[in-house]
């Protein structure tokens, strides 16, 4: 009876959370404003997992377990909670590193991932922006059409993102994110030892929950900044809760780097309530110092674009008549650009987030909220930090685009895992044989799903990776990408670093007829058009008008033989 009650409570809470998220998501579906990626991810990746998990929950309620299963699972729980910490940490590092090479093929699918690598090339060469080849400066916009800032004299380009993640990606290459993913687990162990010192097995419980998160592992295969955010957030938590001037200086350094990783808003939203709780607990000098560092970091990194132009002695884009918005304007735009449809979008994001974690994570997180609130201090801050991040993302950027799980909550996965561990111990679940059995079963299911997620990730990335390889292999000076009816075909236009193999790539959308004619007269030009995109397997948006099939604008004699 106790076993059935525990499974029933955990299963019911899991189902209720999923039902709430699904209800929110339905508002987007009914309104007819669901973008391709959320719906495709739900249809092809998450719906099969939802069906399988709900079937398992139903089976657990209806079928009596074999005799001795409870005892066996409890013994297994005792064994896995005696594992040394390096086992799950090493598992995540090896899985993420191996997956970066084999599952994703080191191909940066999204433009966020590409720019992290592209900016890294420039940064490790000692320059904040990459040089644009002189002969192609007038074509710069067509050569890097997405998330690009180009200097006023068209001599340099870089992404619109902050540089710290790109610097680490440049320095460490494919090892960077696996190191961050595994390093975040090490930091989480240090935090849980600080905050739950009496729960001796708490560190390994946290590590197992992390190691059975497909999102934690697969995001660690990518060049996204999210694994770095997770690492620096947890490193900051470790240091800021230590006493002593040296530790607070180190925490300040972590905060400074965290603000400059990718987008400066992520860390202040995460850290704000922890700073407030430090102040309320009487550690006012620490709170004031950290608040000062975070504010200073935001100011410094908001000036990064201007500093990069000054370092290079070049002109900002405003000199070309395209001025940059002020920090206040950017914040106002972010806060006002979404409407009520963002609620439905967040519902789809949260369904996806839930399906990419250990099934125990969110039920335990929800169960931990009242416990954490009573404890106040660190634990109350962990709850508020997580919920504030969720609210911030719902208001500012509900659409994540590409991502494995929901990447905009990735940097608070540490918070949520720590809170799940708190519930596990403070609610007495760690002492109950049935709950232990459920823990083992959930971990087994999660581990079984990880290979499935690998397959899904590989299958999704493959068409764009294949198209990229085909473009790179073309015997041509220029490739014009002109497949607007194929999703994310413009993402194939990538030209950094300069010394890479393959032709220069440009998008037809940002070339004038005179520019195309000039290119055709000076270079051999190939076209990546609808037929090539279809052959690579890129999905289509809609059937284009047959009377206007597009093309590069070059005559047949000027094109190379570059069809694939």
TrEMBL record:
This is DUF2029 domain-containing protein. Residues 544-564 are annotated as: Disordered. The keyword tRNA-binding does not apply. The keyword Membrane applies. Keywords: Membrane, Transmembrane, Transmembrane helix. It comes from the Bacteria. Signal peptide: none annotated. The chain crosses the membrane at residues 47-64, 85-107, 171-192, 199-218, 249-275, 287-304, 355-373, 379-399, 408-427, 433-452.
């Amino acid at each position: 009876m106790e076993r059935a009650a525990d499974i029933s409570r955990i299963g019911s809470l899991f189902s209720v959370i999923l039902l709430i998220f699904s209800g929110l998501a339905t508002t987007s579906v009914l309104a007819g404003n669901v973008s391709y990626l959320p719906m495709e991810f739900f249809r092809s990746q998450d719906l099969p997992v939802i069906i399988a998990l709900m079937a398992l929950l139903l089976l657990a309620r209806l079928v009596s377990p074999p005799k001795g299963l409870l005892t066996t699972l409890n013994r297994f729980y005792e064994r896995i909670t005696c594992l040394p910490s390096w086992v799950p940490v090493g598992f995540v590092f090896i899985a993420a590193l191996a997956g970066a090479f084999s599952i994703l093929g080191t191909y940066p699918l999204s433009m966020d991932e590409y720019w992290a690598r592209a900016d890294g090339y420039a940064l490790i060469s000692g320059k904040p922006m990459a040089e644009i080849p002189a002969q192609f400066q007038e074509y710069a916009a067509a050569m890097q059409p997405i998330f690009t800032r180009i200097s006023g004299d068209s001599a340099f380009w870089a992404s619109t993102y902050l540089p710290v993640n790109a610097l680490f990606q440049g320095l460490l290459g494919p090892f960077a994110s696996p190191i961050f993913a595994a390093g975040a687990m090490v930091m989480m162990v240090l935090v849980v030892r600080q905050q739950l010192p009496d729960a001796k097995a708490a560190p390994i419980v946290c590590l197992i929950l992390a190691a059975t998160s497909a999102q934690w592992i697969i995001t660690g295969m990518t060049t996204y900044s999210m694994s770095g955010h997770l690492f620096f957030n947890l490193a900051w938590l470790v240091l800021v809760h230590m006493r002593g001037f040296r530790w607070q200086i180190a925490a300040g350094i972590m905060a400074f780097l965290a603000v400059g990783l990718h987008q400066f808003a992520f860390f202040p939203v995460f850290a704000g309530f922890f700073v407030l709780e430090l102040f309320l607990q009487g550690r006012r000098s620490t709170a004031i110092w950290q608040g000062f560092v975070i504010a200073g970091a935001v100011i410094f990194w908001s000036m990064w674009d201007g500093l990069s132009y000054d370092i290079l002695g070049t002109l900002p884009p405003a000199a070309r008549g395209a001025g940059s918005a002020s920090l206040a304007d950017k914040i106002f735009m972010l806060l006002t650009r979404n409407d009520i449809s963002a609620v439905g979008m967040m519902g789809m994001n949260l369904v996806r987030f839930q399906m990419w974690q250990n099934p125990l994570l969110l039920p335990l997180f929800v169960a931990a909220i009242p416990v954490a609130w009573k404890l106040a201090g660190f634990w109350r801050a962990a709850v508020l930090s997580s919920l504030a991040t969720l609210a911030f993302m719902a208001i500012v950027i509900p659409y994540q685009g590409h991502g494995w799980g929901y990447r905009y909550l990735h940097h608070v996965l540490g918070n949520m895992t720590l809170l799940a561990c708190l519930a596990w111990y403070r609610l007495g679940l760690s002492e109950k044989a049935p709950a232990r059995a459920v823990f083992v079963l959930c971990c087994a299911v999660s581990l079984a799903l990880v290979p499935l997620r690998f397959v899904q990730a590989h299958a999704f990335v493959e068409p764009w990776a294949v198209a990229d390889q085909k473009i790179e292999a073309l015997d041509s000076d220029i490739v014009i990408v002109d497949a607007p009816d194929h999703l994310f075909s413009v993402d194939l236009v990538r030209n950094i670093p300069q010394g890479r193999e393959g032709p220069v790539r440009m998008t037809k959308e940002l070339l004038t007829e005179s520019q195309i004619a000039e290119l055709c007269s000076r270079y051999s030009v190939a076209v990546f058009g609808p037929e090539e995109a279809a052959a690579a397997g890129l999905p289509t948006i809609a059937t284009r008008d047959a009377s206007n099939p597009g093309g590069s604008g070059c005559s047949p004699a000027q094109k190379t033989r570059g069809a694939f």
